Input
Amino acid sequence: MKKVRGRLLLLLLVVVVSVICFLPSIPDWYQGLPAWARSIFPNKGIALGLDLQGGIHLVMEVDEDRAVEIAVDRSVVALQDVLVDKKIPVESVKRMSSTRITIQFQNADLKPQIQKLLDDFPAFSEAESAGSANTIVWDLRETESKRIKDSAINQALETIRNRIDQFGVAEPLVQRQGLKQIVVQLPGIRDPKRAKDLIKETALLEFKMLDEENQMKMDLPARIPRDREAEVVKQAESKLPEGSQILFERAVERDTGREYRIPYLVKKRVMLTGDVLSDARVSIGQFNDPYVSITFDGKGGREFDRITSENVKKRMAIVLDNTIYSAPVIQERISGGRAQITGTFTTQEANDLAIVLRAGALPAPLKIIQDLTVGPSLGKDSIEKGVRATLIAGVIVMVFMVVYYRLSGVVADFALILNLICLMGALSALSATLTLPGIAGIVLTIGMGVDSNVLIFERIREELRSGKGVRLAVDGGYDKALLTIVDSHVTTLITGVALFLFGTGPIKGFAVTLCLGIAINLFTALVGTKVIFDIINQRHKVEQLSI
Output
């Protein structure tokens, strides 16, 4: 009797723990509990997946070639600084293709000095049979190009994760797919457009000086309507000085709220980039206008100090993704590593800008190649249909077991209910995300639970037909069915583990419920129902079993 009592207590303990773990999954019940109870119970339950509560599913592709170009552009700027520091006069340093830099100079005697600089740039090698006496051509090494591309994917992945964490999305999925794709699933999002803009924003922050010497010669208009930028650039293309470009500042008329653009002639050379930022936050100005206050790290602060000291009374443009946010005059040297990005922001726009700057810039632009939005009403309908399918399947199976196996079928139904309770408790304890395929896994678990009991009951019938008593027949039925049940469950478990390891998104949800259901099935079929038969046999001298 002690052996039976121990197994019965184990069953009761498992049921109680499962119910406690599942309570947070029912918010109305959980919130109704007293505070001391909520402090003891887990605070997280089953999370609903994208297909059940609505949200967005994005598949994005990183522009790897652009990542390489950006890296080479930075090397061009670094090389220009080194040439200036070493006082080596050159005519130009340009990126001629995505992986090639061309250095031109008048004095051929300078060539050995410039070639020695290659030691400071190990990512490049001098191109063979390229250039001339007054030209040196550097090519980015193939290994370095591959490293930049792979790093761009991983950096984009991490940057998107950081932005989503600060955006405040519960249970997001951000993972790499294939060689250069990233999958993002955001359940429960109520503003898909804002979320997509926040994720896709490149956030390449640059500080550039205005080309004020040629600004007047270009005769650019003071302001233009929005969507006329391409026309202005095309008209001024023939007069555009080398090393300069036209960028536009977004502005809004306070009275009408109408947007317009202010064109500026800006030097292409980047003085400072956003990768030296340590913080970005929203502040409110004296006229109640939000602006973004940025703080540089130690290196950035020193560089900003030097740049502002060398360009007093000149205008510096703060450029984010080729859009000028402000172009203030540097009144004096700015120390302390702090600056402001002002513009015609709403509070939400300023917050989003601070998020992308704080989380870091994407290493290259992203292209959305798949965009699916699931509405909450569709998710609610999926939940209702999934629950209905589970209930219908459960009721049909339970009725069949009672009709075919009589009283023993009732014991099997008890095991089935126990199975579902334990499964929901386990999913809640793991804070698993329930999806439609996950519900399918639960329905499949019901079928497998009944299958185990069918094997056991048929073995018991065989033992009874051979003339054995009820108790010996039950023990013999469980012993003989054990290996068959374990074998079928283990093979299915291997399939579930493979689906979890190699599957993505909803397939993993199916694999989790399947694997948990298999493990719980073994427990309820071999321990749960056996306890009931043992209690019946010990309390009553059963001469005939209803099976």
In short: The longest helix spans residues 506-539. The CA atoms of residues 386 and 439 lie 6 Å apart. The chain is about 55% helix and 20% strand. The domain at 72-138 is CATH 3.30.1360 (Gyrase A; domain 2).
